Write the structure tokens for this entry.
Amino acid sequence: MKISKYYISLLICLSASVVLFSQEEKEEITRIKGLRIGYDISKLALYYFQPERTAFDFSADIEISRNYYPVFEFGIQNVDLNDSIYNYTSSGKYFRFGLDYNLLKNKRIDQYEMSFIGFRYGMAFLDHSADNIIIANDYWGDYSGGNISQENVGAGWIEIVGGIRGELFKNFFIGWYFSGRILVSKKNFNSMDPYYIPGFGRGDKKTSLGFNYSIYYRIPMFKTKYIKPEK
Amino acid sequence: MLKRNCLFLRNCISIPFTLVMIIACNTDEVCDENTITNVVASFYTTVDNRVVDTTAMVTSIIAVNDSMSILYESEDAVQSVSFPLNNSLDSCAVIMDFTLYDTIPKPDTLYFTDTLTFFYNIELIMESIECGFVHYFHLQSINWTDNFIEDVEIVNPAVTTREYENIKILY
């Protein structure tokens, strides 16, 4: 009796292990897709390098098909510059949209590392003004107290981007990209160029280089399951 | 696979910090543009409507203000002179002193003084972030005394930091 119980138990254990083994062989791999929200932490460095500027940049992208990611970016920027020869303030926002293409051929379906290139079209709107303007004149006497009242200006540009992005933890990403930008349109750049065009760069230049270093959270919205082929 | 992930994350994290250090060492900005807005006057002598000389000996240009500041001073014959306008008012006057070496009827040095009064509009322009603001002038008209000067013609009314010939002085 005891021997038969022993054999029955052994048989059950063996059966269970066979079932488990076969499940491992047909392991399901899940590829998660969803809206990925990003925050550009590189703008925190402005506090040290350009304390007159404060900027917050956010992004959202989603994988629409393998390796293609439409991107939308939004940001706000304020400038409060107190110089010895003028004070300048501006407040603006920008939008960028475009597409990233992942060049990296990930071997596993559940890998999300990206080495990407892409393009963007950006547009910015801002209000700016200047006061306490001083212009030195050794012959006729210095000019002081000048001001330029608030002007509404706009700008549009195109840019190409390239960078990398990796998964830090599940659904949490980190990455950076460089961008080269060309200003294609500007509106109301009359008496002064913007100190900085939000999302573009210096307002007195037609081209600029940008850098973005963001952390991201992907909202797991869609899960596609794939069966790992048997070995 | 894990190895590649680690390499990827290392690149994700380390490269930006290197870049920040490079940027931190290259953030000095200085004003290296011309911020002087001077009116440029050229001199011409004509005989029978034909230009025979394009130089004049302007010994000094003096601002008509409380301090009578010397705007220009030279002992050489020049084709043109440049000097600033008053950027606190929409008009200003300058005194030009001329020297002329004459040989007829006998060698002699002659001295002349004329006053030019400029009327203009002023525009406040941001030259650049580093340099700040400058004034651009738009010449409307010029009045002058005719002791030495025969005629004054505005050829380019825009007085900016790019120094082009603005007025022709015929004598």
Notes: Chain A has one domain: 2-227. Confidence is low (pLDDT under 50) at residues 13-23 of chain A. Residues 2-227 of chain A form a domain with the Porin fold (CATH 2.40.160.20). The helical segments of chain A are 2-25, 46-49.
